[in-house]
Amino acid sequence: MEITVCRACDVALLDRHMPSPGVTSFHARRFARQEAGDCTYLIAWLEGRPVGHTEMRWIGCEAPEVAVDCPEIGGLGVWPEGLRSRGIGTQLIGAAEELARGRALSVVGIGVGKDNPRAAALYARLGYRPMVDYLDRYTYVDVNGVERECVDSCTFLVRELD
Length: 162
Hints:
about 160 residues, alpha+beta, Aminopeptidase, seven-stranded mixed β-sheet, 4 helices, 7 strands, globular
């Protein structure tokens, strides 16, 4: 497996292999944030195909409840589901942490949905500790052109880097 920083030419391939709900491309939005300098969007590749992604959000978590001043690892995903629990997510988190170390940062955060105990267990094994509960809000445009808002109940976790 290889992990690279997302390039413009990767966005369409990501949309094909890991589609976003509706017509809004989460990948294009993350790439645009990367181009603005707000994040680094990492892609995991297996045999030339994208199988995972995460973004290191240098601007931190947007939720007002999270008053922790550190970058946030966000948008972590592995697809298809059959590839989960094979270390891809762990390697993506490790790559994001290395980016933070490269900027001489000592703490990083990650959010986890309260309905995702599998991810919470992974983050705990990697040394992340709960700090605060918050609501993660995001929008997308569905196939009928209607903007939808999603609100997920989450916990923000932090880890001090070595």
